[in-house]
């Protein structure tokens, strides 16, 4: 069984098996909750790049993990695949927090359940039911993530070695999410705040801690974990900066979300922070006004998004973010080389870095 070549398919396999087994008992006890179980399964299995399990797997392989031991590899696969359930929780709740209507080209969970409520003509506000359902389904995903990790068929000592990384990934992403909404409500458009969010909400959660988790499962030294954290920190921020650009300039058919949604949701990204800062330095009040007015404007039209795009490009914010992505990616790859990982991990992580930061708009 070639785990390396077909990693996303193997992640999908163990997730499908876990979701089916985990949902069986409660489905029998309370069939009404079946709609929630189906929604979670559909969300988890209906798309996604599987980046977090991939980084974790290659952290394990780079630290000497041997996939020829099929029993061990299956256990590691279950442990790293559980990261997708944390991701499901984060995305379902994030869509609710941001009042997003679509995800991967389909209605978000809270929107889908609100529509179901409205179609049945039940009492109360459909939106309230949709919000409550999304909170509970996201909570279930997080609870099941813990179950899947804890029940991975691995020696207790192996799981114990990875538990600090597991604890950190859950806490750091929540801290990053809190900081994200805090900057929206306070209007903090500083570069420092944007980068702090990127470090916690994306770099640590998407790249650093998954690498840490995988390496710990292989019994990696503190020195090797440190090198992977350095690689993952810079790469994770670069990945988020690329996502920020896609949030404004991306093709909805590729991103799965309407272009400009980050602006409508009031995201204080580095792109926005630099746009406002550069506009102020150049005395370009028109550009500054366009950017500021767009942040948190839910009714922002496509034409107005085009105007903001032009303003961000005009003041140099887009080029500055592109340069930052290039610099961070180069620094991350240099750290990766210094890690001296077991092959083919270096080559695979280099390919993942290129995929995560590729310009696609």
Automatic annotation (TrEMBL):
Could you tell me which InterPro entries the record lists for this protein? Answer: Isoprenoid_synthase_dom_sf (IPR008949), Polyprenyl_synt (IPR000092), Polyprenyl_synt_CS (IPR033749)
Q: Name one Pfam family in it.
A: polyprenyl_synt
Arranged from A to Z, the UniProt key words for this protein are: Magnesium, Metal-binding, Transferase
Q: Is Repeat among the key words of this record?
A: no
Known cofactor(s) = Mg(2+)
Q: Mind telling me which PROSITE patterns this protein's record contains?
A: POLYPRENYL_SYNTHASE_1, POLYPRENYL_SYNTHASE_2
Concerning its family, UniProt says: Belongs to the FPP/GGPP synthase family.
Q: Which PANTHER family match?
A: GERANYLGERANYL PYROPHOSPHATE SYNTHASE (PTHR12001), SHORT CHAIN ISOPRENYL DIPHOSPHATE SYNTHASE (PTHR12001:SF85)
- Record protein name field: Polyprenyl synthetase family protein
What species was this sequence derived from?
Answer: Amycolatopsis minnesotensis
């Amino acid at each position: 069984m070639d785990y390396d070549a077909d990693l996303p398919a193997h992640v999908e396999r163990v997730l499908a098996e876990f979701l089916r087994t985990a949902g069986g008992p409660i489905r029998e006890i309370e069939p009404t909750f079946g709609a929630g179980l189906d929604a979670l399964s559909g969300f988890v299995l209906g798309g996604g790049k599987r980046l977090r399990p991939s980084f974790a797997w290659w952290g394990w392989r780079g630290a000497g993990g041997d996939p020829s031991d099929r029993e061990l590899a299956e256990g590691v696969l279950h442990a790293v695949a559980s990261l997708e359930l944390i991701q499901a929780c984060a995305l379902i709740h994030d869509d609710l927090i941001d009042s997003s209507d679509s995800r991967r080209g389909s209605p978000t969970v809270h929107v889908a359940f609100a529509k179901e409520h409205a179609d049945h003509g039940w009492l109360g506000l459909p939106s309230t039911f949709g919000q409550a359902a999304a909170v509970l389904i996201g909570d279930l995903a997080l609870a099941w993530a813990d179950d899947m990790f804890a029940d991975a068929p691995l020696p207790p000592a192996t799981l114990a070695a990875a538990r600090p990384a597991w604890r950190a990934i859950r806490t750091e992403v929540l801290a990053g999410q809190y900081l994200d909404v805090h900057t929206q409500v306070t209007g903090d458009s500083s570069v420092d705040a944007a980068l702090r969010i990127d470090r916690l909400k994306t770099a640590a959660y998407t790249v650093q801690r998954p690498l840490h988790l995988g390496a710990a499962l292989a019994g990696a030294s503190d020195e090797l974990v440190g090198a992977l954290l350095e690689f993952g920190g810079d790469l994770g921020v670069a990945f988020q900066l690329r996502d920020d650009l896609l949030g404004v300039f991306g093709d909805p058919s590729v991103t799965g979300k309407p272009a400009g949604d980050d602006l409508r949701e009031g995201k204080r990204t580095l792109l926005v922070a630099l746009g406002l800062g550069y506009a102020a330095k150049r005395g370009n009040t028109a550009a500054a006004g366009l950017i500021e007015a767009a942040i948190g404007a839910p009714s922002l039209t496509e034409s107005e998004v085009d105007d903001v795009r032009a303003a961000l490009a005009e003041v140099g914010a887009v080029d500055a973010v592109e340069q930052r992505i290039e610099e961070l990616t180069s620094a991350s790859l240099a750290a990766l080389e210094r890690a001296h990982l077991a092959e083919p991990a270096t080559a695979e992580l280099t390919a993942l870095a290129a995929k995560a930061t590729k310009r696609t708009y």
